[in-house]
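Troubleshooting: if your tokenizer reports a length mismatch, compare your output against this known-good record of 651 residues.
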Amino acid sequence: MSAELQRVFDHNIRFFKRVNHPYFTKFIDYQPKRLTLRLSEQGYINLVNINTGQAVYPEDPVVYAEKQAAAFLKKRSHFVVTETLIDRGHPNYPYTEYLAKTNKKYEELLPPIVQADETLAEQLFMYGAGLCLQLQYVLNTLDVKNLTIFESDEDALFNSLYVVDWEQILGYFNRDGYSITVYNVTDNDENIRVINSLLKNKGYHRCSKIDTYFHYENDELRQLSNNLKFYFMNVLGGLGYFEDERLGLLHTLENVQKGMPISRNSLTMASDFCDKPVLVIGNGPSLDELEGFLKERLEQFIVISCGTALSTLVNKGIVPDIHVEQERITLVRDMLVEHTSQEQRDKLFFVGLNTCCPEVYELFNNTHMVMKPRDIGGDLLKQVSDNKFFEMYECNPLVSNFGLGLAIMLGFKEIYLAGVDCGMIDTAKHHSKQSIYFNENEEKAPVFRKRAIHSARGNFRDSVLTNPLFNNSRIAIESILTCFNPNCYNLSDGAYIRGAEPKPSDDVANFEKIENKASIIQRLLERSFENQTFDKHSIAVELDSIRECFDLTCNKIRTHLYISGMNYLEIANEFDAIEGILRQCEQENSSVYRILSGSIRGILVNITCAKKVFNDLDFAEFYAVVETEIDVFFTATRVQIVDLLPAYEQR
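Known-good structure output:
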């Protein structure tokens, strides 16, 4: 290694030590395992594979980086993040009506080619860092405010210390509103999870258009890039629509008045385990292949059916022991009435989320309610009661997530997953063929295959197909399995789930028949749930407080939404102020924050995205529609919030 390279390395190490940067500890005694620097026959330093001697760069890395940066600056690959509806929404739903009308105008004006901003990159995702030589060319030309680097090989980062001045790089980002973050790509899902902090810290509207730079490509980085795009979209949808939060609140208030037991304890957290095996059944396509196993072995398991899996099981002549639901919509009740009998439902223990439609609880005799985390209803009840609830961990996005969470909560240590596919082999077979999603082999819900499809590692095969909804369900399952570490086995021919051992049904050991299932389940439920009462007057007072805070917060937000004639940075600054209002609201009244958070942030994202992709004339035309619909949205939501108290008192 030449003296000049060593001088650069020593300078970087001294700098990292001086500023207490974690790279000092990481790299001071680091020994590369795969990549190192060597002098090429042509006289330049290259990054070389230690084992094979193969050069990483096809030419002088400095020349390569300059050419690559020039190509990027000319093309500026990117993706945009917008809030969209997968259906037309419902009447008298203010936010979905807003989205339907503004999305229509957006699609009318969307140009076939989006011109890049010549000077500004609010967010730049760089896949692969290599020797980081490309940074000087990009940063000298483009004002990059927030740079996120995903590098799969720490050897490359270590070797960059010999050829680039990290003090200059970090100095560039050491300004208000600027940041640089480097993630080591060791697990795609982990990178996806940490991106959530970027959205929260920078503001969702600051991430509406993201430049993408591939310094090098491999399957891992390409898959990560695709997953991040899908994840961004799902995060926005998961923030909660106004109408969903409002409806969930009313459902919670009605459900608690029914006097049913509410989740109080997690037996797993108390190390109070049940030694019986439990089978959590989702409605994935592989459920059809497991029909014989289920019928033959049903008496050996406590069986939990999740959502629409119940009607599929009934069609197969299988009756589970526990059934779970979590959706707010009344369609759940209608489907249960249509596809199951009262006699069948009377045999089941029913567990629902607090947001679940009250009419669903009325269909069952033995009902229990679990509190959803980060929920407006739970927030309100905490304000009016000293009672403490157990809030279900990772119960979204699909009902099978809730079913697994319940199994863990009830202390089951041996958990088997069936029909929890989190993917599909064929996009036309996204659920069991005997489910409500198909009728006489005709598909009734093509929305599941119209979502963005990408590949994922398979449980019993190399790969399967998945979409953002199924993929996020898998990520949530892996999260709860990592947290509680039960013995979990996956019988499903779908996506591989880390923490759930792939196990073909033929390899499942025979267990003894479980006698007195109902008694066992009842005892577990009694340990985890208890009856609680809430004072109606206190709830009414809290609802009135929500109305007042809602009015005040909306008035503050509205003043920052008059952005006609502003440039992008001026708009972004106004929306930063709205982010500040939302965060203050989160501290002062979490119920109001939850009811506004998703809808307001969706509005901000769509406006900033349009500002990025439209020319000035088209943006003015788009914003004219937005401004009108924003007024309609605020007027309609205020009416519905004012009606919360009388609606509650009438229930």
